[in-house]
Structures are given as structure tokens and as C-alpha cells.
Amino acid sequence: MKALLPAAGLGTRWYPWSRVIPKELLPLGRYPAIHYVLEEAVEAGIGEIGIIVSQTKKLINTYVETIWKSDHPEIGLKFFYQPAPRGVADALLCACTWVQDEPVAVLYPDEIHPPDGGIRQLRRAYDHAPGCWIGLTETKQKRRQSILEVEKTDTPIFTVKGFSRETATNQIRYGIGRYILGTGLKYLNEYLSSLGIGKSEELDDDRIFEPLWKQGVRGIILNEPIYDVGTPENWFHTVEEFFHNRIEHHEGDF
After folding, report:
1. At what angle do helices 119-128 and 33-43 cross, to 10 degrees?
2. Regarding beta strands 217-221 and 132-137, do their DSSP bridges make them parallel or antiparallel, or are they unpaired?
3. How many Å apart are CA 242 and CA 164, to the nearest integer?
4. Where are the domains of the chain?
5. In angstroms, how far is CA 146 from the centroid of its own chain?
6. Burial label, 187 (beta-carbon count in 10 A; 0-12, 13-18, 19+)
7. Are the beta carbons of 5 and 37 closer than 8 angstroms?
8. pLDDT tens, residue by residue, 65-110
């Protein structure tokens, strides 16, 4: 299994800081945010990681290649460049040839999960039952989350039926920036080509899962706390809680 971190976004919610420093490099304790997401992938047993960036965010390359990689020489690392900010699905397609039909874990780098959660949880679920898996939370937080319609099966597993606009029903759970595409990315490229969709449209999360709902997508509730650095307000909250919960009490985690 490989992992992909889509990190090419403009960071508009962090403007004007994002014009200078990518939000993925915002400090959390001893390290920048992306450091913990990379460690999460390694903790899940993933040995090949791809990072999708833009030409204006090469500071990410500098940190990962010169600092993080020095502690992980065994990890295969590859960078991909998204020419324009056209959504997450478009970003993933930049790595389509590298992934092909191999299972791939996708980790959004502005969401920080605990060491025993995130992709590690999803990887265990995938190893038990290969397929497409989405990480879920039960309640909507003060962060950007997709709303998903689910059907409960064997606890704690859900069948995920698709994206929803509803917010007041027991059949709703929330996406949290972690998923595993068990069939890789070749399917997505072929699906979009069959629709005649090219490189001019914005291709976001809905396009990634559109052809998968009928094939079966499962979800599990991921461990908390989950931190968000996508906005200044959430980052300030994260710094305060993260320092006490992760650095003071669990300094050995990373």
C-alpha cells in the first residue's frame, strides 16, 4: 500500500500567511503539521509516500527531504506537482501513474490524528476486509467536514452510501480527511475519461467516490482527538491542546 498527501491547495483561509508559509509547515510543538501526518503513514506500515504540491510550495519539499527523510531513509518518497488548484481529485490524478491499481491511503495534511488512530485504524480495517474505507466522526466539529449518509452494520462498521446535505438524522456521519482507495487510482482516471472530463474542471472529493458508492464503501469511527490547522482559529486551539495532550504527556510518540 502507498500513501498520498494532497498538499497543493492555496490555503486561502490562511491568507496572507499562506503566501509565505504553507499551512502544512505551521508549527505544532517540536515539528510542523505535515511531520505528524507523515509519521502517521509510517506507523500504519506504509513504506512509499507521495506528496502532491504546487510550484509555489517547495518549502514543503525542503523540510521533508532534508529533515524528515533523514530520520526515515528506508521510506520511499516522491513529489508530484499539481499545475493549478483544481481540487483533490485532480491532485490525486497527478500521481495516477505511480499508484495505478495499487491500494492507496489518502491523508489530508491539515488534519492531525492521534498515533493510534487515522490511517493506522483504517489500515487494520482494510487488512481484515480489503476495499474502500473512509474515516468518520460522529459529530460535526469546528472544521471543514463532508457529510456522509451511512447505514450501520456490524459495530463499529458502517456502509457509506454517499455524500449528503442532511444534518439532522441518525444516518449521518462526518468525513475527516482519511480514506483508503482499495483499487488505487486507475479507476478514477478511466471514469473521468469516460465522462469526457478533462483538466479544465475542478475535481473535488465527490468525483473520487462517485463511481465507488455502488461497489461498496465502508467507514469506521476514528479515534479522537483530531486536530485541524486549516484556519487560524483552529490552529490556535490546536496549539494549546496539542502541546499538553501530545508533547507534554506523550513526548515519546514521535
Report:
1. 20
2. parallel
3. 31
4. 2-253
5. 13
6. middle
7. yes
8. 999 999 999 999 999 999 988 899 999 999 999 999 999 999 999 9
Residue 24's CB: how many other CB atoms inside 10 A?
Answer: 26
Q: What is the pTM of this model?
A: 0.91
Contact 117, 36 (CB under 8 A): no
CATH number of 2-253: 3.90.550.10
Q: Residue 91: name the closest of 101, 81, 104, 103 by CA.
A: 81
> Which residue's entry shows cell 509555489?
56
**In Å, how far are 10, 15, 41, 245 from 18, measured between CA atoms?**
7, 5, 25, 27
pLDDT value at 236 more than 90: no
**Closest listed residue to residue 72, CA positions, set 40, 39, 99:** 39
Residue written as grid cell 486507475: 186
Q: Which residue has the cell 501530545?
A: 246
8 Å CB contact between 87 and 59: no
